[in-house]
Amino acid sequence: MSRLAEYRKLEQQLAAQLAELESMKSDSGLKKEMEFESKLRALLDEYGYSLKNVINLLDPQAGRYASATESKAGTRKPRQVKVYKNPHSGEVVETKGGNHKMLKEWKAQYGSDTVESWLAK
Fold first, then answer.
1. Quick one: which H or E segment has residue 91?
2. Is the pLDDT of residue 4 over 80?
């Protein structure tokens, strides 16, 4: 695409966005929301409160959930032990992951789907 064509395309997109912006400015619902937001922020400033303070006042449970999820951000559920039993040899392998030497050998020999069907636990 030439630079001139790209310029004209961007110019048309900008004109469309400006038209959409003008139509939104005349929307009474948007005007009400903007007025509410400005009054709310002024009220918060007047009393020295933040949005978090207001949420905790109105719904203390909401604050607990937010802090609980923040503290668990770096942890994950421990892996479950899986027990595979080879029906051909009777050997049993217990593992938490798929990186077990014998399990890899079985999957190479019998196929992954077959070995997964041997899952006992």
1. none
2. yes
